[in-house]
Amino acid sequence: MSVSPFRNKYPKSGKTLEAVYTNRRSVSELDPAHILGLVNYSAPLEPDTQHADIRTSLRISLPSLSESNNIEVWISGDPVKTAQMGNLHYRHTEELMFGTLEMSESDYSSISDCSHSAYTEIINAIQELGYRHLLRMWNYFPDINKDSDGLERYRAFTVGRHQALSVIPDFERYLPSASAVGTQENGFQIVFLAATKPGIQVENPRQISAFHYPETYGPKSPSFARATLKHWPEGKHSQLFISGTASIVGHETLYPESTSKQTEEIINNINSLIENVRDSHQLNVNNIADISFLKVYIRYPKDINDVKKVLKLHLKPSQPIMFLQGDICRRELLVEIEGVIDIQR
Ligand code: 3EB
């Protein structure tokens, strides 16, 4: 029996799911049969026959602000199959689905109509296919802070998402973690992870749940959890998917003028979230230095050194980070950070 050299590298010790950040050169070393999903935050990839069947690979047009590895790959220890249903392209194992969906906004009357349609398609597909539980969503679309018909496009997106998700009984209890970031090019893109068994919703004691935000932030509240905790059956491995986290305390934006101070406040928020997970679930995690992979979305490229300076005080040099230029979903927000923590139980 031949053993793929890839298996020695990823996933480590029989993990159900593992994320790596890699680059254009190294991506071809990964065994496509174990790639659950590939999201390219870099320049377009050369067509490559070996990886050609990874239809779930999506390119997100967020300019990279660093030389780091800007291709995110989700790897499973189990063999992966590819399929498509309507607009949804997905790869799946017995317990996990990685889906991508790209819509052309011009096919819809508005961004809220587009997000309503996208989320409805996802909900119907995961129910039909048996991956009923959304774990993590990434939402990317252009001009996120622009007004359209008197409503900011982020808020209109939120309305459509809420309409679609609220058909699920008691839907707020099952909301996944998420990010919503403004891109530079047309195309409404959603990337998500769903599973046959649920994750655990985690909220942040420093922040009001986004799904309870007052109406000052839009006619419908944003449908996401601050994090999702997922216990995998294999390897006593758990993962914490941390949503895009901004300088918001309670429901208010803090430090609209300072990217450095917003970064510090984000770190306070993430540390508070992690402490909450540790205390409520008796897990061996302490703070932001435990995050396995981070993505940092920065509104103005000139601010990157301010952000790096603050992060350096709190992170280990070995932590992989992607720095991307993205528009954050409130106009005063200058930076947002998301991540995944691998936890050994
Ligand atoms: C916030 O906390 C900042 O609408 O899916 C962060 C993560 C934010 C996800 C979303 C929005 C979303 O409200 C914005």
| Percentage beta strand | 25-35%
User: What does the average pLDDT come to?
Assistant: 92
What is the fold-level CATH name, i.e. the topology?
60s Ribosomal Protein L30, Chain: A
User: Mind telling me the CATH superfamily name?
Assistant: RutC-like
Helix-strand category: alpha+beta
What share of residues is helical? 10-25%
Please report the number of helical segments.
Answer: 5
Question: Can you put this structure into words, describing what you see?
Answer:
With 345 residues, this protein is α+β, with helices and mostly antiparallel strands. It has one domain: RutC-like (60s Ribosomal Protein L30, Chain: A, 2-Layer Sandwich). The chain has five helices and 20 strands. A six-stranded mixed sheet has the order 5-6-7-12-8-11, covered by helices on one side. A hairpin with a 3-residue loop joins strand 6 (88-92) and strand 7. 3-(2-carboxyethyl)benzoic acid (3EB) is lined by residues 139, 178-180, 210, 222, 224, 243-244, 246, 248, 329.
Write the layout of secondary structure elements.
Blueprint: H1 5-9, E1 17-22, E2 35-40, E3 58-59, E4 71-76, E5 81-85, E6 88-92, E7 96-103, H2 111-129, E8 133-142, E9 147-148, E10 151-152, H3 153-165, E11 177-183, E12 188-195, E13 200-202, E14 227-231, E15 237-245, E16 248-249, E17 252-253, H4 259-281, E18 293-298, H5 304-312, E19 321-325, E20 335-344
Parallel strand pairs: 2-3, 8-11, 18-19
Antiparallel strand pairs: 1-4, 2-4, 5-6, 6-7, 7-12, 8-12, 9-10, 13-14, 14-15, 15-20, 16-17, 18-20
Helix pairs in contact: 2-3, 4-5
Bound molecules: 3-(2-carboxyethyl)benzoic acid.
